[in-house]
Specification:
Radius of gyration: 23 Å
Distance between the termini: 35 Å
Shape: globular
Length: 528
């Protein structure tokens, strides 16, 4: 079966077609997708080129938190923390289906940071930026509080504070969708193999998986290649490296759930690092992350046995039931492109970002570093920098705008609070579709928000794997650039974690039969 390609490529064998645009964005991670969205919404013609799938690498391998970064206060990163804290509620309001508030418990270990220091840090965390949705911090008695039950009895006092959770890969897709709705062309599995700079424009060559090529003329180039940013400049854009990136691998493990309540934990470790233990996908606990210098191929990050041992050992210092390497059912690793500030400790390297605009010839904007929480601010600042040389018709616009699926008002009326709005939406969707199992309705609501209403107008068709029907698969292909089973099972959803090998193979077989054979983009996931 042949289906139209929303990514803009013609069928194999079609004549190569040139395209003119205002901005070519190289990189389909969170920064590239966010910048493309902002620029397209300002009336500029944008093309995005991503060599793999959207969010294939770093942007789907985070700890999946919208957070200020409590530990960064120890490194005096007050500006970064304030910026991130201010963004939490902006993001929570923009997409309540893929982001929601989460309470964190820090058990107090008297051998680590003293209680007064933690209280002081939490006071700053509560007051560095305005809060409307998230409650402030408090102290709890772990001997009676539900969050103390899974912990060793030696932990008697805990500190509770607020941050948020995000489905990171879907956040990237939503930004790409919004960019496309404003006229952007999003090309996945498309490599920018060459970019030559002239006085007034860039001449770039894009290449698809099957060798098809397209010439792109752009007034400006945005280098948002993440860990590949310096490499792209040197090898494809023929430009000197402007910054030195420090590549740090962060790995996570997933184990059967360690507790039944809805809070997450932040654990202090003897090496002065922290790890999180977070409720994950209903049946699991996500534990991470590590900070290890990455010296191998950027797209080939994998967790190693020492990282697994480290995460298990540190979690076992707190949980009464020890975490063993044999408990690990899944793991993933990502490479963070951090600005090299010559810090000896990878954990101390700044998570802030730097934007460099060079207008000596056709504009070149390089994006260095960053974190998922501040992506919208980064994108807005990037668009502000390019607005003048490109004469953008519109100014900043994303702060009070919903991401696709985030506006639930057509179903539930005016928004109140992001968390309660979503709960009301699930109830309304379940009432509208009593024929569907409640878990399926909730999953579709989580994944698509208001867009689930559109999806459910279609006949669902046969079930390819438990809870996954043909209509949803085709929706992901037609609307969200899914091209193979990995895109569906590990990025557009985490259904791969819930399926056995037989069900994952069934999805892969269906995708190959309906969409054609496609070598899966390199993933940063690993089964144990």
């Amino acid at each position: 079966m042949n289906h139209p390609r929303p990514d803009g490529w013609r069928d194999p064998g079609a004549a190569d077609v040139a395209i003119d645009c205002d901005v070519l964005v190289v990189g389909g991670g969170i920064n590239g997708a966010g910048i493309a969205r902002d620029l397209a919404g300002r009336g500029l013609k944008v093309v995005v080129a991503e060599k793999d799938d959207l969010a294939s690498h770093t942007s789907s391998s985070s700890t999946k938190l919208i957070h200020g970064g409590l530990r960064y206060l120890e490194y005096y990163e007050f500006s970064l923390v304030r910026k991130a804290l201010a963004e939490r509620e902006v993001l929570l309001k923009s997409a309540p289906h893929i982001m929601w508030p989460l309470r964190f418990v820090m058990p107090h270990d008297p051998g680590m940071r003293p209680a007064w220091m933690i209280r002081a840090g939490l006071f700053l965390y509560d007051h560095l930026a305005r809060r409307e949705v998230l409650p402030g911090s408090t102290t709890v008695d772990l001997r009676s509080h539900p969050t103390g039950a899974p912990l060793k009895k030696t932990f008697r006092q805990g500190f509770v504070y607020s941050d948020g959770w995000v489905d990171d890969a879907r956040l990237v897709v939503l930004n790409a969708l919004d960019a496309r709705s404003h006229g952007a062309t999003v090309l996945t599995r498309t490599t920018c193999v060459d970019a030559k700079r002239g006085a007034a424009q860039w001449q770039a060559t894009l290449q698809g998986l099957q060798g098809e090529r397209r010439a792109v003329t752009a007034r400006a180039l945005v280098n948002a290649a993440g860990p590949w940013a310096a490499q792209f400049l040197a090898e494809h854009a023929h430009a000197p490296r402007q910054k030195s990136l420090r590549l740090v691998k962060g790995s996570h493990i997933v184990v059967p759930k360690m507790f039944d309540h809805d809070h997450a934990y932040i654990f202090q470790n003897p090496d002065k690092r922290i790890i999180f233990a977070i409720p994950y996908e209903a049946d699991f606990t996500l534990i991470g992350t590590t900070d290890v210098e990455h010296r191998g191929a950027i797209g080939a990050a994998r967790i190693d046995i020492d990282e697994i041992a480290y995460l298990c050992a540190q979690a076992s210092r707190y949980f009464s039931r020890a975490v063993a390497p044999t408990d690990v059912v899944w793991s993933y690793s990502g490479v963070r492109p951090l600005l090299d500030d010559e810090s000896g400790d990878p954990s101390a390297v700044t998570r802030d970002y730097s934007l460099e605009l060079d207008v000596a010839q056709a504009p070149l904007l390089n994006v260095w570093g960053g974190k998922i929480t501040t992506f919208r601010r980064l994108a807005e600042e990037a668009a502000d920098l390019l607005a003048a040389p490109l004469k953008a018709a519109r100014g900043a616009w994303t702060e009070r705008t919903f991401l696709p699926g985030g506006d639930l008002s057509a179903t539930i009326g005016a928004p109140q609070r992001p968390d309660t709005d979503f709960s009301r939406f699930v109830q309304a969707l379940a009432l509208a579709h009593p024929e569907l199992p409640t878990p399926l309705v909730r999953r579709l609501a989580r994944a698509y928000g208001a867009r689930a209403v559109e999806l459910l107008r279609r006949p669902l068709g046969p079930e390819v794997a438990p809870g996954l029907h043909e209509a949803e698969l085709q929706f992901l292909h037609d609307e969200e650039w899914a091209r193979c089973a990995d895109d569906v099972l590990w990025r557009r959803s985490k259904l791969g974690l819930h399926y056995d090998e037989r069900h994952r193979a069934a999805v892969d077989d269906w995708c190959r039969r309906h969409w054609g054979t496609l070598a899966s983009a390199p993933t940063e996931t690993q089964w144990n």
